[in-house]
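Quick review question:
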């Protein structure tokens, strides 16, 4: 009878704790579950091996006995004792009983190895029984695109999952990559297990007016100002995602200068009344289609500037 390495079956180290063993089991059981692989005998066999390994490693008494067996078997293999390893004799000499747990019945879809060590039956099958441990369904991610203005104000979306429609709220301040959890709307569980969750992952649609900075709360935009205002100074109206604001432009402001407008950026997610800033870059609009009189005035200005430079 071949020795079965249950740790290798679950893909965990021999030092793995209960949490790591349970996590490995759930991932493998979900992958090879017969409901996921209908008609696949290979997957069904793998599923039985995974269940058997978990039955042993998730039970402290069985795991202790199995670990002792492993040490004894390795010692036998090193010594090369004749006649083969005496499985039944080893099992009979242990102080552990053949108690069954974790939802299995002795010999039910279990290997000869398991039945000999933990049941003492030499591999006798009492009856066939399919093991069904509740397995939580897999979580699902789904992208949801929103405009920058929707992310600023918050919005709603209707999500279609099969025949079911669910209305969800995208909160104000949602950023690129924000995950919105909808409990129980993921993949269904197996064997009465809980369904997984649905996570909506926010993607922001490019906005023609504003760009989101790397910190995800500050915005930047271009502010086109006429030549006369940047030369003489004055006030301009600056569009924002909220209410437009008046901005004072100092005389002689240069093209390319960046001006900060406090608290006119994106709202902080789940933090009321906190906002990032808006940074506007000044772009000077040079007048076109000048009348002859305007051209003459600019010529006079040019002459005055030339005299001043001398």
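Suggested answer, residue by residue:
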């Amino acid at each position: 009878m071949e020795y079965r390495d249950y740790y290798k079956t679950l893909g965990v180290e021999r030092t793995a704790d209960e949490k790591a063993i349970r996590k490995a089991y759930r991932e493998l059981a979900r992958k090879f579950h017969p409901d996921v692989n209908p008609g696949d005998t290979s997957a069904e066999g793998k599923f039985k091996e995974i269940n058997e390994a978990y039955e042993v490693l998730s039970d402290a008494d069985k795991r202790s006995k199995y670990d002792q067996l492993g040490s004894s078997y390795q010692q036998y293999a090193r010594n090369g004792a004749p006649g083969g390893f005496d499985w039944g004799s080893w099992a009979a000499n242990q102080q552990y009983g053949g108690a069954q747990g974790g939802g299995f019945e002795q010999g039910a879809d279990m290997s000869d190895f398991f039945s000999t060590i933990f049941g003492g039956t030499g591999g006798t099958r009492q009856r066939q029984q399919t093991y069904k441990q509740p397995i939580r369904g897999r979580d699902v991610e789904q992208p949801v695109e929103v405009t920058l203005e929707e992310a600023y104000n918050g919005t709603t979306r209707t999500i279609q999952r099969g025949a079911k429609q669910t209305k969800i709220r995208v909160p104000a301040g949602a950023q690129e990559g924000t995950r919105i959890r909808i409990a129980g709307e993921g993949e269904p569980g197996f064997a009465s297990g809980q369904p997984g969750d649905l996570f909506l992952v926010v993607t922001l649609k490019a906005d023609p007016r504003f760009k989101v900075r790397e910190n995800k709360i500050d915005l930047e935009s271009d502010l086109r100002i006429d030549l006369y205002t940047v030369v003489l100074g004055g006030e301009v109206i600056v569009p924002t995602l909220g209410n437009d604001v008046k901005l004072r432009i100092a005389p002689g402001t240069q093209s390319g200068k960046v001006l900060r407008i406090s608290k006119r950026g994106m709202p902080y997610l789940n933090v009321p009344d906190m906002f990032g800033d808006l940074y506007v870059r000044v772009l000077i609009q040079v007048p076109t289609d000048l009348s002859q009189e305007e051209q003459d005035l600019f010529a006079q200005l040019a002459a005055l500037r030339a005299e001043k430079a001398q």
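Why it works: The domain at 140-204 is CATH 2.60.260.20 (HSP40/DNAj peptide-binding domain). Residues 60-79 form the longest helix (20 residues).
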